[in-house]
Write the C-alpha cells for this entry.
Amino acid sequence: MHTSKQNLKIQFFVTSLSIVLFALKFVAYFMTHSLSVLSDALESIVNVVAGLIGLYSLYVASKPKDKEHPYGHGKAEFVSAAFEGSLIITAGCIILYESIITFFEPTTLHDLGNGIWVLLSTAILNLVAGLIAKTKGKKNKSLALVSSGQHLIIDSYTTFAVVFGIGLVLLTNYNGIDAIIAILMGLWIIYNGYKIIRESLAGIMDEADMALLENVIAELNKARDGKWIDLHNLRVIKYGALMHIDCHLTVPWYYNVNEAHFAVDDFSALIKNKFGDSVEFFIHTDGCMPFSCPICTIENCAHRKAPFKQKLDWTMENVLSNLKHQL
C-alpha cells in the first residue's frame, strides 16, 4: 500500500475511534452525573478536532496543486482550526462555570463504579491507538499522524487522572473532589483551545516554526556533503501537511548546470528522507567566492584561492542570514 494512502487509512481509523470514545465518555457522564467525567468528554473534543484536521491535511497532501493554489490547500486547515479552537474555549468556560457552582452546591453522583470501568476502557483504547498512530507516523514520516497519535496519548492521561479522582470520591465519599477535578479540566480545555487558535494564527501568518527549522538544520549537519559549501537564506513554512523550503545553496563555481542540479537533488533527497515526500523546494544555487575557500571542505580543489581553515557549522543564526558566510 502506498505510504500516503496508508497514512490516510490510519488517520481515518484514529478519527473514527476518537468520535466513538467521545460518545462513550458522554455515556459515562449520564451514568455518573459527574462533572469531571463531563469535562473529560468535552476535552475529547480536542482529540476529535485534531483527528479531523489531521485527516483533512493528509487528504490535502494527496491532492495535486492547481494554478489557483500553487502552494496547495493546506491553509484551509488553519482557518478551520481557529474556528474549532473558539468552540473548545467556549466548552471550557461552560465547564468552569458549572464546576464552580457545583463546588459550592454539590450534586448527587450515581453509579460511579460502572462509570469508572467505561472511562478506563476509553483511556486504554486511546493509549493503544495513540501509540500505534505515533509509531506508524514516525515510520512513514507523517507529521500529521504523529501529532494525532500524541493527542490520543495525552487524552488517555487526562482520562486516567479523572478515573483516579472518581476513585478518590468512592473511597472518601467527598463529592467536592469531583468539582475540583472538573475545574482543573476546564482550565486545561481552555488552554488547549488557546493553543489551537495560537497555532492556527501562526500558520495563517506564515510564522517561522523554530523547532522545525532546528530539526531541518540538525539533519543537514548530520549528513552534510562537501559540495554544499554554504547555506543561507533558509526559510521553512508549513502549509497543512506540505512543508515548503526556500534557501540559497552555495556550490563550486565551476560546476556546470547538470552538476549543480545533482547537488540540489542530493540536498532535497536528504530532507525528504527525514521528513517524507510532502516537501517542496525552491533552491537557488550560488557559485562559491574566494572568501568561501577557508570554509570549503572539498579536497584537492584545483581552483582553491586560500587554504582550508575550519568547517563552519550551520546554525539557526547563520543559515537564516541573507549573506554568504566567511571567516
